[in-house]
Amino acid sequence: MKYNVLESSIGVHQKSILQSYRFEFILVLFLMQIEHSVVLITGASSGIGLSLTKQFLQKGAIVCAFSRRGVPEDVKVQFPNTLMDYTGDIGKVQDVKACMDAIGERFGSLSIVIANAGMAHFENLADMNDEIAEKMVSTNLLGVFYTVKYAFQLLSNVSGPKTIVGIHSIAATTVFNGASVYSATKAGTLAMMRSFREEARSHGISVIDVLPGATRTPIWSKDMLSDRGNDMMDPDTIAKIIISALEQGRTDEDSITHIDEIVIRPWTGNL
């Protein structure tokens, strides 16, 4: 795995910020802190992941962005002090572990993890290429497993609220023709995160599952985006909804209420 950390005065300044906020975490329960929080986003180079990356940065978060291609250059230039750009394959455990080790060495903890990386290939099961099926399983299912497993200790190091957000798909619960393998991977991640939610409670970690419908992202072919793009949702809107859910859960006014699952569809219906 390769990673490019945008240098400057980042290290000492951010560590002092994190230390001060760790102290505040011990004292009070408060609105899920976005500003100065260390956030990991996988699949950050495009689509919902890129929208989340930009919006967290705009809110003052420190974003550790993990993807195969890297975050677009204009985003790196705009946020030179708060964006960490890590490149690797989410389906390869050694890449995920290297990313977590680098985050742990630099920051020591994570407050929010967005398990977003994924791929899609739509084809009938009987016609599906074996290698494509294996790649979908390793990226969509094992990628989430590796992310959650190796981010767990970094999340546990935070004294206050900490959250994992799993970005799944309505294909996890809705039958679509030609989506048997893709749906299986998304149903698998949803089941895994629902179970992990119960395991994580005693560690103070909450879980939000997000099931978006058709969204205008590179997961679709150019022909599909050209033909049906106007019927798809905007990834920026999806990102706003996710961040809003994070900000509204476990507040100082109500430390109990929490949003477990979000289903987001085009109001016109599924494609």
Structural write-up:
Helix content is 44%, strand content 15%. It is an alpha/beta fold and 271 residues long. The protein has a single domain, classed as NAD(P)-binding Rossmann-like Domain (Rossmann fold, 3-Layer(aba) Sandwich). An 8-stranded mixed β-sheet has the order 1-4-3-2-5-6-7-8, sandwiched between helices. Strand 3 (62-67), helix 3 (73-78) and strand 4 (83-87) form a beta-alpha-beta unit. Helix 2 (47-58) crosses helix 8 (235-248). It is globular, with a radius of gyration of 18 Å.
Helix and strand layout, with pairings?
Elements lengths: L1 E4 L4 H18 L10 E5 L4 H12 L3 E6 L5 H6 L4 E5 L5 H14 L5 E4 L14 H27 L5 E6 L12 H21 L4 E8 L9 H7 L6 H14 L12 E4 L7
Parallel strand pairs: 2-3, 2-5, 3-4, 5-6, 6-7, 7-8
Antiparallel strand pairs: 1-4
Helix pairs in contact: 2-8, 4-5, 5-6
Segments where pLDDT lies below 50 for 5+ residues? Answer: 5-30
Number of strands: 8
Sheet having the most strands: 8 strands, mixed
Query: How many domains make up the 3D coordinates?
Result: 1
Whole-number radius of gyration? Answer: 18 Å
Report the CATH C-level class.
Alpha Beta
> How much helix, percentage-wise, in residues?
40-55%
In short:
With 271 residues, the chain is α/β, with parallel strands linked by helices.
Features:
8-stranded mixed beta sheet; Rossmann fold; about 270 residues; about 45% helix; alpha/beta
